[in-house]
Design goal:
It is a single chain. By secondary structure, the chain is of the alpha/beta class. The chain folds into 3 domains: 14-237, Spore Coat Polysaccharide Biosynthesis Protein SpsA, Chain A, CATH 3.90.550; 264-352, Hexapeptide repeat proteins (UDP N-Acetylglucosamine Acyltransferase, domain 1), CATH 2.160.10; 369-455, Hexapeptide repeat proteins (UDP N-Acetylglucosamine Acyltransferase, domain 1). It is built from 9 helices and 41 strands. It has an 11-stranded parallel beta sheet, covered by helices on one side. The chain is elongated. It starts with 13 loop residues before the first strand and ends with a helix. Bound molecules: uridine-diphosphate-N-acetylglucosamine and magnesium ion.
């Protein structure tokens, strides 16, 4: 494709500014507002995810202030830029502070770090509308049943695109109170008129703040075009200012997530009881039972079943896996056709291979269980390598910790570990060996041998009967 030449207009350079400097007083929290979570991610991370689908991360700037260092390090991995707004003197002031970073761009889109339901599609719609109308400022609006608290949009004509002003709640006339179209606080600006006129903002209002909303009237008076476009889904503009609002947004997000998965062929029983984070992926024909949590970056394959009350954090689960009721699985990999639970606990760093079975009250930590192996009851395996087709009997325990360091246990292919065995690491049980029930294994067991280490049984015939008779005789005295 030929590159743009001087006869073709070049594509505008667009920056996205995310206002995220506020404290969030109404949350009554020691954590900064934008680091509160909904849908399993911080508010700010959701907004960054949407923004970076529209422009490269290097063109996204978060305006941070309250607890700036914490906010910066929480989202550092996204490699966006940051601008420090030391003192928060209003939404207009936030852009004044960011002038140096943003002025080199042709257009600036403004989003809020506490409004996480915004989608990349809506940002693109705002951008495209803004460019097609050749406007200096385009406001994303929403129609709300209850517009109280929001700035209202005063259009020049009821049916036209052009806007005269944004009027904040406190300054509404009686007639303006009836307006249901509200300011989302998201805008697209042409950078030149924005920064050419931004110094006209004054802090002579109720709060002594520089309101970005005043730019609508300032630009209109300067004969610049200001237009508005309404969001298709009013939810997208909701902000999390209170715990109740955070919970509403969280619920909205999770309901939408369940819908999306169901549309992709996943069966979810009683979806309103399930907690599924936004980044989770699930394959078709998988069944998710009631009250399941799938969190973090969990990926589940097809034809798998996840039992009720299971909590799964950032795991990779294959196809045709059965996770029965009440499993807690963290940062682990479960391969195809494996079966877990009820009540299995996989701590971080485990791999359960194809066709393996991990049963009730079995805890694994940093342990790999090979193909077709079984640990079905009441077992702890830590720092252990289990080969293929191994049977680990009920109540087997690895002693992987000597009070100072952790040590490895290796159980090679085809081993049979009898019930109630204690494997004191470091130790290796060779291929095809047997460990007799209730053995304490302290030394390596060679392949194909039997390890037997328990006290020899003594039987005293008639002992119990004699004891009973003696007791009876004493009572009769
Ligand atoms: C703003 C709009 C209002 C709109 C509403 C939508 C103004 C004056 N009003 O009101 O018309 O209906 O949003 O939610 O803009 N922030 C900074 N630095 C500051 C001040 C704020 O980064 O100095 C950030 C806040 O952290 C927040 C966002 O900007 O994420 C909005 O600020 P906020 O004070 O909540 O504005 P609203 O009063 O809600
Ligand atoms: Mg607000």
């Amino acid at each position: 494709m030929p590159r743009a030449n001087k006869h073709q207009p070049r594509l505008p350079k667009i920056a996205i500014a995310i206002l995220a400097a506020g404290k969030g007083t109404r949350l009554k929290s020691k954590h900064p507002k934008v680091l509160h979570e909904v849908g399993g991610k911080t508010l700010l991370a959701h907004v960054i995810a949407a923004a970076t689908k529209v422009v490269p991360a290097s063109d996204v700037f978060a305006i941070i202030g309250h607890e700036a260092d914490r906010v910066r390090s929480a989202v550092a991995a996204s490699s966006i830029g940051f601008v420090l707004q030391q003192e928060q003197r209003g939404t207009g002031h936030a852009l004044m502070v960011a002038r140096e970073a943003l002025a080199p761009y042709d257009r600036v889109i403004v989003l809020y770090g506490d409004a996480p339901l915004i989608t990349s599609q809506t940002i693109e719609r705002l951008r495209d509308f803004h460019l097609s109308k050749k406007a200096a400022m385009t406001i994303l609006t929403a129609r709300l049943e209850n517009p109280a608290g929001y700035g209202r949009i005063v259009r020049k004509k009821a049916t036209g695109d052009d806007v005269k002003a944004i009027v904040e709640q406190k300054n509404l006339t009686a007639a303006q109170q009836k307006i249901h179209e509200v300011n989302s606080g998201f805008y697209a600006f042409e950078a030149k008129p924005l920064f050419g006129h931004i110094d006209k903002l004054s802090a002579g209002n109720h709060h002594g703040e520089f309101y970005l909303t005043d730019m609508a009237a300032i630009l209109t008076q300067a004969k610049q075009r200001v237009v508005a476009v309404q969001a298709r889904d009013a939810h997208e503009v909701l902000g999390g200012n209170t715990r109740a609002e955070l919970s509403e947004i969280d619920q909205y997000m999770r309901t939408a997530k369940c819908r999306q998965l169901m549309d992709q062929g996943v069966t979810i029983l009683y979806p309103e009881t399930c907690v599924i984070d936004s980044d989770v992926e699930v394959g078709p024909d998988t069944v998710i039972e009631p009250s399941v949590q799938l969190r973090g970056s969990t990926r589940v394959g097809s034809d798998t079943r996840i039992g009720s009350y299971s909590v799964i954090l950032s795991c990779e689960i294959g196809d045709e896996v059965l996770v029965q009721t009440g499993c807690v699985l963290e940062h682990s990999v479960i391969r195809a056709r494996a079966s877990l639970g009820p009540y299995s606990h996989l701590r971080p760093g485990c791999e359960v291979c194809e066709d393996a079975h991990i049963g009730n009250f079995v805890e694994l930590k940093k342990t790999r269980v090979g193909k077709g192996s079984k640990a079905n009851h009441l077992t702890y395996l830590g720092d252990t390598e289990v080969g293929e087709k191994v049977n680990v009997g009920a109540g087997t325990i690895t002693c992987n910790y000597d009070g100072v360091s952790k040590h490895k246990t290796i159980i090679e292919d085809g081993v049979f570990v009898g019930s109630d065995s204690i494997l004191i690491a470091p130790v290796r049980i060779g291929k095809g060996a047997y460990v007799a029930a209730a053995t304490t294994v302290t030394e390596d067991v060679p392949p194909d041998s039997l390890a037997l280490g328990r006290a020899r049984q003594i039987v005293k015939e008639g002992w119990a009967k004699a004891k009973r008779e003696k007791a009876k005789a004493q009572k009769a005295k």
